[in-house]
Amino acid sequence: MTKVKICGIKDLKTVTILNQTLPDYVGFVFAKSSRQVSIEQAKKIRKQLLPCIKTIGVFTEFKKQTIEILVEQKIIQGVQFHTKISTVEVDNLKNKDLLIFQIANKTTKPAKEVDYWMFDSKVPGSGQLVDWNQIDAKGHPFIIAGGLNANNVGAAISKLHPGIVDVSSGVEKNGQKDANEIAKFIRSVKNADEKNK
């Protein structure tokens, strides 16, 4: 079964639909972005989310202190890096029982030890489609992000068989997460999994 990550959650309004549709993961963006949240905002949202939904902190640089606060306060269960990280950093994060996602592109070769390699467009969260023909995970578990929506996620699953599909702008209307789009996206993933059994 393909897992789903809804990224860029920044307000409590979205929690109701997330608790109804049950994505596997929700992403909190701590990097500079229109979807950036503070530790306090993330904490409030985490408290309202059902415990079965894992939360992932998204970073464009390794912020040890922020990550430690987020872990101590049980705000995140995983981290996603759009940057290089050292083997020592990976080991430290693993010791905290965190899931680790890392971007894979021309400038960042992901560590073998991370849980998932992530293939995304050049500008994450922009809605630009990642080039599916350029994806080579070399047998490593991987995530597809970049330009996914309810209309194309089924094709991505059929062609690439990712472990996780990650969506942000593809479930938004006017820059806000939309309950109908989230429900449609998750339904499309389930339908694709049924077809590919």
UniProtKB/TrEMBL annotation:
| Pathway of action | Amino-acid biosynthesis; L-tryptophan biosynthesis; L-tryptophan from chorismate: step 3/5
GO molecular function terms attached to this record:
phosphoribosylanthranilate isomerase activity
The family database entries (Gene3D superfamilies) matched by this protein are listed as: Aldolase class I
Q: Which domain of life is it from?
A: Bacteria
**GO biological process, any:** L-tryptophan biosynthetic process
Q: EC?
A: 5.3.1.24
Q: Which residues form the N-(5'phosphoribosyl) anthranilate isomerase (PRAI) domain?
A: 4-187
Is Flavoprotein among the key words of this record? no
Q: What InterPro entries does the annotation carry?
A: Aldolase_TIM, PRAI_dom, RibuloseP-bd_barrel, TrpF_fam
Q: Which UniProt keywords apply?
A: Amino-acid biosynthesis, Aromatic amino acid biosynthesis, Isomerase, Tryptophan biosynthesis
In terms of Pfam families, this protein maps to: PRAI
Report which reactions are catalysed by this protein.
N-(5-phospho-beta-D-ribosyl)anthranilate = 1-(2-carboxyphenylamino)-1-deoxy-D-ribulose 5-phosphate
The Swiss-Prot or TrEMBL record describes its family as follows: Belongs to the TrpF family.
Could you identify this protein by its name?
N-(5'-phosphoribosyl)anthranilate isomerase
